[in-house]
Input
Amino acid sequence: MKKLLFFLGIFCTLQAYAQPYSISFSGTGLSTVKVQNLTTGVIVDVPASDVLLLSTPTGITEVNNLKSSGLKVYPNPMTDKSTLEILPPVAGDAIISVCDMTGKVLTQFKGYLENYTQEFSLSDIKNGFHVINVQGNGYKFSEKLISNGKSNGTAVIAKLSNNNHAVAEKKSIKVSKGIQATVDMAYNSGERLKYTAVSGNNSTVMTDIPAADKTVTFTFTECKDGDDNYYPVVNIGTQLWMAENLKTTKYNDGTAIPNVTVNATWAAATTGAYSDYSNTPANSTTYGRLYNWYAVDNNAATKVASNGGKNVCPTSWHVPTDAEWTTLTTYLGGENVAGGKLKETGTTHWISPNTGATNETGFTALPGGSRHYDGTYYYVGYGGYWWSSTEYSATTAWYRHMTYYNTNVLRGDYDKRNGFSVRCMKN
Output
């Protein structure tokens, strides 16, 4: 009786599963969209001609973590039939059970499951809340199922097919454009997705919290540096930013920027220079390069002395002024919270706890560290420092700093000989 009341309590508080959200993508020359769930970290690639299918429970509280990546049930809720897609971690004998809300087993399938995706048809399920269990050698998968059917018959599980390619098979759904292949992605209501769309060499970043079927349209802007590196771009408010740190070794006219590795030479420099963190080029693949302020100077009054009037940013782009950085942080709610909205999520690059990082802007700020004016390197993983093009004094300039332990964007001035990261803005 207690078990019955328990399941009845669960059932009465559940809302029906929403139909999966279908997200289509468009844009001139669009080839593919990389979709990252910023909450779970899961990434899928969606070809431009396909649809992203988000399996989204609405208003349903997870019960004992029943949802399992090794078992998919669709459609859910079901009317006449549903498909079970099972990917066992190991091959062996297994039991598939359908239980009603009292815990009573309605039907079972006993057989040998291979270590690749297999599909089963589920039919004649009475109206109500049910649980699907799959138990094999050292594993157990469970998933909730709601049936809107009117069957009074005996529940049936029937094997449909094997997928011996060991990959999830794409399903087809009918949308306004006709029948399109879909790419499935687990999704819970309110989670934020980051889209990185590609068109030729160009890419653009957007973030979104889907709540309905929709089409996301991208526009593409070229951002190519003097080394012919292309950068993704992201629109934040009225500004268009690079979505990665600069890594060029040349000004945009092709002139080389000196790579200074010797500490004493770095400390003495009063013209443009760059370095790789710890003089290790592999670090720049992830974090971008570090530049002294003389390389990023956009002030016409000092260009001849600092970098000869050359621009470190791609053509039609520039190093943001101190005021433009302030416009960004103000738009995001102020310096005390803007850092959380700009930082990459997780601790792959930021050290723990990476406080408050949501990356809801798609800016994906990374902790590239810095090179001190004496030539020594500090703080990779702990913090990121970005130059503005605005001088504070004859020897210092404004910069911004984000760190792993809070959500701030700190504003300060520092010696122009320091090596900091650079983000460029569209003119």
The helical segments are 2-13, 263-268, 281-287, 293-296, 303-306, 322-331, 335-342. Residues 232-426 form one domain. The longest strand covers residues 105-113. Residues 1-18, 58-67, 164-179 have pLDDT under 50 and may be disordered.
